[in-house]
Amino acid sequence: MDPFTVLIICLSCLTLLFLWNRSYAKGKLPPGPTPLPIIGNMLQLNLKNTTESLNKLAKVYGPVFTVYFGMKPTVVLHGYEAVKEALIDLGENFSGRGDFPVLDKVTHGSGIVFSNGEMWKQTRRFSLMVLRNMGMGKKTIEDRIQEEALCLVEALRKTNGSPCDPSFLLACVPCNVICSIIFHSRFDYGDEKWPTLIKYFHQNFEIISTRWIQLYNAFPSVIHYLPGSHNTIFKNIAEQQNFILEKVKEHQETLDLNNPRDFIDYFLIKMEKEKHNKQSEFTMDNLITTVWDVFSAGTETTSTTLKYGLLLLLKHPEVTAKVQEEIDRVIGRHRSPCMQDRSHMPYTDAVVHEIQRYIDLVPTSVPHSVIRDTKFRDYLIPKGTTVFVSLTSVLHDGKEFPNPHQFDPGHFLDEKGNFKKSDYFMAFSAGKRVCAGEALARMELFLLLTNILQHFTLKPLVDPKDIDTTPFVSGIGSIPPAYELCFIPL
């Protein structure tokens, strides 16, 4: 049988399978655009800006609709009411992790972020317990952040007010804070391994947000064997996991079962306690993936938010001036900022929230899935169906945040200038899968931003009105454009 005939038969079988699946799901899944065989709705979506496409579809099909990425149906939740109803009111049902093939290939269903079932429940519960023991959300971790903030200030001074790309230095602080938790150590900014590790974090987040990876996730069985940037992700993660494995081996040699020093020690002790349990979720593979999850998420999201935040402050010098005035009034120039200051600094607090709201760092969150057949409004979503949560539609809601596409700290201030909370602030997602490091990230963003503005004037290289804050890439993440600035000591 010639190859062309085989290809036709395969495509015909796939088409029949697709049509059968559509027939099975008809009357259960929410409405949506009619998909084409094999490719689904891929031609109807702008993969360069999926969020924009989903916003347009929501205007046609409402706040709950279905799109097909290839042959895979995905339910999209759009708007605060739908998102709240799913993630909070029906949180358990929507607590599954949806398919993300490019990373499923390397995590193999373990860790915190991309796991499901007992693996996810036990690993997340254990990790949160250890992170609390290590001081997350407490004064001990605040002290670590303050120490690293001072190191950052000294490193910025060494730029001597010359133009620089802040990416590397901004990543060093959250990376070192995470390292102190998981490795019980920190790296000197001049360490030779340091720039390479930071590069891997930045590169992975950027590549994962590209159109190529969206295609990979839609057609993994085909694209996996093609050349492309997915291979760079696999290579980078392999290097990171080898680094983690080296650290684990060092810990095994010096482990004291009665005196855990860090996250790895706690996990190794748990492994030892459950070594006779063949069903234990606490394995070496899970340890490596869990540490990678904490390491990468704890570094990249905070550093990218800071980098984007400084770009917005360059674009809006009047906002920067107000923050610095509040810093001078509440903190002064001769002591380090602390978390107790935040309650006395409503404008600065509003600026931090507005940065997160405006940049919309992870527009559709990491995919969810339903863990059982779920009746949602007038629909029945079958168990295992992938669910996209449009955080953009919540963070950029025009009723809650007037002029949502403008950077305006007033979105989080009342008429008296006091900080105003909003249920629509879901920058860390919501429900069972809310970011495990939210408390740490909030601390880091406030302390690092205030430390930088306490010691430096931010000087752009172009007129502020010419600064473009449009994301360089917008996919799973919103990546800020590359830029340089000058840190002028005050």
Automatic annotation (TrEMBL):
SUPFAM superfamilies: Cytochrome P450 (SSF48264). It is a peripheral membrane protein. Its cofactor is heme. The keyword Metal-binding applies. Gene3D superfamilies: Cytochrome P450. It comes from the Eukaryota. GO terms for cellular component: endoplasmic reticulum membrane. It is found in: Endoplasmic reticulum membrane; Microsome membrane. Transmembrane segments: none annotated. GO terms for biological process: organic acid metabolic process; xenobiotic metabolic process. One of its GO terms (molecular function) is iron ion binding. Keywords: Endoplasmic reticulum, Heme, Iron, Membrane, Metal-binding, Microsome, Monooxygenase, Oxidoreductase, Signal. Heme binds at residue 435. The keyword Transmembrane does not apply. Residues 1-25 form the signal peptide. Its main location: endoplasmic reticulum. It holds the Pfam family p450. CDD domains: CYP2C-like (cd20665). Belongs to the cytochrome P450 family. PANTHER family: CYTOCHROME P450 2C70 (PTHR24300:SF200), CYTOCHROME P450 508A4-RELATED (PTHR24300). This is Cytochrome P450 2C21-like. It comes from Hipposideros armiger (Great Himalayan leaf-nosed bat).
